[in-house]
Write a structure and sequence with these properties.
Layout: E1 22-27, H1 40-54, E2 58-65, E3 68-72, E4 82-83, H2 92-108, H3 115-128, E5 134-138, H4 145-153, E6 157-161, H5 165-171, H6 178-194, E7 197-200, H7 203-211, E8 220-222, H8 229-232, H9 238-244, E9 252-257, H10 265-278, E10 283-288, H11 293-303, E11 309-311, H12 320-325, E12 329-332, H13 346-353, E13 358-361, H14 366-369, E14 377-379, H15 384-396, H16 398-415, H17 418-435
Parallel strand pairs: 1-2, 1-5, 5-6, 6-7, 7-8, 9-10, 9-12, 10-11, 12-13, 13-14
Antiparallel strand pairs: 2-3, 3-4
Helix pairs in contact: 1-17, 3-4, 10-11, 10-15, 13-16
Length: 456
């Protein structure tokens, strides 16, 4: 099935990427819905699980759905869910106590602590995880159930940290406080301590894990996000797409995203004023919606470019490549936030997969991914004039734009596909299993042998 075979020798049994592994991929966050197309975590989780399944591994996805733990066995049909068996957390007594405590919390306006959610997830994992080779969790705040179950069952536990959720809430103006903050800190330390590997999306998050959370550096691996190469590589009739959106031959500068405060959309609007001076018929296309939309619209009105701007509102994820086809330049104008940008922007890889000319700010991981003048143009965050100049440079030189787009697409194909990310994860799983092959069983808790242990 695989063209290569990565192996790590340790102990008596050798596990390679040719083995078919049984993987539990889990998310405890009760507000997370895999069936949505936003936020980016939903896209990430679906593609990671699907790519591992396509590679031949048995991957079951577990999450919280109200007061149940559900399981999806086939990511190509995520609407088909099964309900996991529960023990003590499924009893009438547990539910009665939970209902009473939650009612009191609502009355006194107490903060959410996720205690019952963690107990329920722990209970389900204790019953389910012994059939898997590894458990991989995508992190969220106040989530410790899977980690504690893995520790009890001696199942290799891996965690992906897309961002420090405590820091992220603080920057968003919703900081955790008091008991909630103390509990979140304790649970985060537990998950990082129990994890055999901590996977993060950027070097900034890696440094945060080392300096703030004291996670050993050799335990951390940076694995950036990826893009659906096939979806974003679809070919469209550019003129037809433009006509359907009401555009003609004018230069179109675009952005795709959820209109968050860190996206720098007000800076983009301000830089667009200068672009309009050089290219009076140019248009700004903003694809998406979110909490910052009203501020962006107000800013555009004040600067006199509102009539030269289109905001689509929320669109289907599968339609995004079509909107990208209408753009001459795809923008990623991220701002500085007081902290180094910790996340891995999904839109960056999707722009590259679509072969777009990218103008972005040198924030966090962006400057590690984009090669100046080769796969895109980079500008310092907050440099309104510099951003406008970069956009104008790209608009004025169609041959240069084509070169940047071709190079970006090639880099996406060779380095940033979900298949490539799945292969990296296979190496992580195999390395952990080989390193622990002699010590992975507890008395009385036999570990299941790998399916199809012979290579194919």
């Amino acid at each position: 099935m695989f063209s290569t075979c990565v192996t790590i020798q340790s102990g008596n049994e050798l596990v390679s990427r040719r083995h078919k592994l049984r993987i539990a991929y889990v998310v405890q966050n009760p507000s997370f819905d895999l069936l949505t197309e936003s936020p980016a975590i939903a896209i990430t989780v679906k593609n990671v699980v699907r790519s591992l399944q396509v590679a031949g591994h048995h991957v079951d996805y577990y999450d919280l759905r109200g007061r149940c733990v559900s399981c999806i066995a086939d990511m190509s049909a995520p609407e088909r869910r099964l309900t996991s068996r529960l023990g003590f957390s499924g009893t009438y007594a547990f539910r009665l106590v939970e209902s009473g405590v939650r009612r009191v919390q609502r009355i006194v306006k107490g903060r959410y602590l996720a205690l019952f959610d963690s107990l329920r997830f722990y209970d389900a994992c204790m019953r389910a995880l012994s059939q898997y080779d590894v458990c991989h969790e995508h992190n969220s705040v106040l989530s410790v159930g899977a980690a504690l179950a893995c520790k009890q069952l001696n199942i290799p536990y891996i965690i992906t940290v897309d961002a420090d959720p405590i820091l992220e809430l603080e920057i968003q103006g919703m900081p955790l406080k008091g008991l909630q903050l103390a509990l979140a800190h304790w649970e985060a330390r537990q998950t990082y301590r129990i994890a055999r590997r901590v996977l993060c999306l950027s070097e900034a998050t890696r440094q945060r894990l080392i300096t703030y959370w004291k996670v050993p550096a050799d335990k951390i691996l940076v694995l950036p996000l990826a893009a659906d190469i096939d979806l974003f590589g679809q070919q469209y009739d550019r003129d037809e797409v433009r006509r359907s959106l009401g555009f003609g031959d004018e230069p179109v500068v675009g952005f795709v995203g959820s209109f968050q405060m860190w996206h720098g959309l007000e800076d983009l609007v301000e830089s667009f004023v200068s672009v309009r001076r050089r290219f009076p018929n140019s248009h700004l296309l903003l694809v998406g919606d979110g909490p910052g939309r009203a501020a962006v619209e107000d800013h555009a009105r004040r600067l006199g470019v509102y009539d030269s701007m289109t905001i689509t509102g929320r669109v289907s994820y599968r339609d995004i490549p079509r909107y990208l086809a209408a753009m001459d330049v795809a923008a990623a104008p991220y701002r500085r936030l007081g902290y180094e940008m910790w996340f891995s922007p999904l839109k960056l890889y999707e722009y590259m997969a679509a072969g777009k000319t990218i103008v972005a700010t040198r924030c966090g991981q962006i400057s590690e991914v984009i090669q100046e003048g080769i796969t895109g143009l980079l500008v310092e965050p907050g440099d309104i004039s510099g951003f406008a100049q970069a956009v104008c440079r790209a608009i004025a030189d169609p041959a240069f734009r084509r070169k940047l787009g071709i190079n970006a697409r090639h880099q996406a194909e060779t380095k940033h596909s979900w298949t490539h990310l799945a292969e990296r994860l296979e190496e992580v799983y195999c390395g952990i299993l080989n390193a622990t092959s002699q010590t992975c069983s507890k008395p009385g808790i036999p570990r299941r042998k790998l399916d199809d242990a012979k290579t194919v």
